[in-house]
């Protein structure tokens, strides 16, 4: 994190009474903000709180209707991201923009390739780009093609590109949404090192553990207003959730009582496959009303176990029992669904939802037979079902006819969950069910899934997010290279212990 307290360092960027509205709706309400040299400020809030609009105003992509911005004490009026960049404000959005068919060096120097009389040299470009990366302490091979890099590596390239243009402030919007834990930690190391050199960093995130890991200070937005501005060391997770959700925070408290659990909902015995990682004689029981988290690093085997339970992996061998009834290994998704498995995939846009269709159609997609007669869909039944699910899951949409693609990430995820619960599964299998949603929606999803478990559903939750695993699990099963290496409950169920077991002796 940054060095001295904020008041000991000069302010680099100041915003005063920023306001912005869309369609008559005020999304930013006279927001004040300041950041000092070498400070990392996390900006958090629910979807719709105004975080993205705030970031885009700071970056020059959106112009405020009122308010003022100052950089190094001088008032600025950004009409474009180029204006902001010239003033020293770099912006890295969640959806990166880069030249995929060009090298890292080309991307770092795009728009300002060195040349003499219109002629440039690849060697010169690579030399300058490599020097920039080294100057900022970021390790990247400037000769590689951007298309061949991981997302984490591309983000580092974008950071070098912004810093090489003399940025004094760097704005990152959800930079770890699709990164593994180790990739995120590497990014945090880079950011902390850059802050030590005096760079100011505005870090927008949905993940509460990241805020405490990397931020010096936290600014909380709710309904377009700043409702919290606290030093990270002086606050707690419940306090931040309270700022974000207001009166709703107490209702959505994340505390819960575990067990005892006695009736098996799901029993896996002798599960094996020869893929990567190899899994041999995997056994697991999930009881009715119990939330079991399978936690491990990406590639530990949890995801392929979940996919096999959903009938998406035909290569597993072993036996399955659901509420005492024996089933053959599921070879198709339909067989898993008929047996009582509800499956929530990790990629909602690609595997879980039909984005161009309305909310109503997505909510009813898996239960069309139940709301049809003689092959004809009952629109009245579909509407009643969708309205009930919308209310139960608190899906925020203008109407049931609104397309899913236009919803926020958190509300898309709620539609995905609700569509699976429409079939009233006996076992719910979830892969990263809160990936890419804001903290408020995440708390709501946790709360709702606990209520589903309390009604007797067995829940198998597969995640690489150690904070979430510890938070939601009644029992935390740690996987490493396809094998169970620990089962944690009670006071043993800590992030430190889970990470230790997941990474022990790992290369």
Question: How would you describe this protein?
Answer:
There is one protein chain. This protein is α/β, with parallel strands linked by helices and 507 residues long. 33% of the residues lie in helices and 25% in strands. The chain contains 18 helices and 22 strands. It has helices at residues 51-58, 81-87, 104-108, 122-135, 151-163, 181-196, 208-214, 237-245, 248-251, 302-309, 333-338, 348-352, 359-364, 379-393, 409-421, 439-454, 466-472, 495-503, and strands at residues 11-22, 25-36, 40-44, 66-71, 74-76, 89-92, 169-173, 200-204, 217-222, 225-231, 264-273, 279-287, 291-295, 317-322, 325-327, 341-344, 372-373, 376-377, 427-431, 458-463, 475-480, 483-488. The strands form 5 sheets. It has a 6-stranded mixed sheet, with helices on both faces. Strands 16-19-20-13-21-22 form a 6-stranded mixed sheet, with helices on both faces. The chain has a 4-stranded antiparallel sheet with strand order 2-1-4-5, covered by helices on one side. A hairpin with a 5-residue loop joins strand 11 and strand 12. The relative contact order is 0.11. Mean pLDDT is 85; it is low at 1-6.
């Amino acid at each position: 994190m940054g060095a001295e307290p904020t008041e000991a360092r000069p302010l680099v960027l100041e915003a005063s009474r920023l306001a912005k509205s869309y369609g008559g709706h005020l999304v930013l309400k006279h927001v004040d903000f300041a950041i000092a040299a070498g400070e990392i400020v996390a900006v958090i809030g629910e979807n719709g709180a105004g975080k993205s609009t705030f970031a885009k105003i700071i970056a020059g992509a959106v112009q405020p209707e009122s308010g003022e911005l100052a950089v190094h004490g001088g008032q600025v009026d950004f009409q474009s991201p180029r204006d902001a960049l010239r003033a020293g404000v770099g912006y890295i959005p969640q959806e990166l923009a880069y030249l995929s068919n060009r090298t890292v060096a080309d991307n770092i120097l795009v728009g300002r390739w060195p040349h003499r009389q219109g002629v440039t040299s690849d060697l010169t470009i690579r030399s300058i780009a490599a020097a920039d990366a080294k100057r900022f302490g970021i390790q990247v091979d400037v000769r590689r093609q951007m298309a061949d890099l991981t997302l984490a590596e591309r983000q580092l390239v974008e950071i070098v590109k912004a810093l090489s243009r003399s940025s004094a402030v760097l704005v990152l919007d959800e930079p770890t949404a699709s990164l593994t834990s180790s990739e995120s930690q590497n990014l945090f190391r880079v950011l902390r090192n850059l802050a030590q050199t005096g760079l100011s960093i505005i870090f927008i995130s949905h993940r509460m553990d990241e805020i405490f890991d990397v931020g010096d200070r936290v600014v909380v937005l709710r309904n377009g207003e700043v409702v919290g501005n606290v030093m990270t060391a002086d606050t707690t997770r419940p306090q931040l959730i309270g700022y974000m959700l207001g009166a709703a925070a107490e209702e959505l408290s994340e505390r819960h009582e575990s067990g005892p659990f006695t009736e098996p909902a799901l029993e896996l015995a002798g599960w094996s496959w020869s893929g990567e990682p190899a899994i041999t004689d995997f056994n697991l029981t999930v009881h009715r009303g119990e939330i079991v988290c399978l936690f491990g690093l990406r590639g530990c085997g949890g995801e392929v176990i979940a996919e096999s339970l959903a009938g998406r992996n035909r290569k597993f061998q072993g036996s399955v029992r659901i509420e005492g009834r024996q089933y053959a290994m599921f070879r198709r998704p339909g067989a898993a669904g008929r047996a009582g498995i509800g499956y929530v995939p990790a990629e909602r846009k690609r595997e879980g939802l039909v984005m161009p269709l309305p909310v109503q159609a997505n909510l009813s997609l898996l239960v069309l037979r139940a709301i049809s007669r003689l092959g004809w869909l009952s629109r009245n039944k579909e509407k009643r079902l969708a309205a009930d699910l919308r209310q139960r899951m608190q899906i925020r949409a203008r109407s049931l006819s609104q397309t899913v693609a236009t919803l926020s990430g958190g509300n898309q995820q709620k539609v995905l969950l609700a569509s699976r619960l429409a079939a009233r599964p006996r076992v719910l299998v979830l892969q990263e069910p809160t990936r890419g949603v804001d903290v408020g929606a995440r708390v709501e999803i946790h709360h709702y899934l606990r209520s589903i478990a309390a009604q007797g559903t067995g829940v198998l939750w597969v995640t690489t997010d150690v904070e979430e695993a510890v938070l939601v699990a009644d029992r935390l099963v740690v996987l490493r290279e396809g094998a169970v290496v620990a089962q944690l409950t009670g006071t043993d169920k800590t992030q430190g212990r889970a990470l230790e077991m997941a990474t022990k002796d790992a290369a």
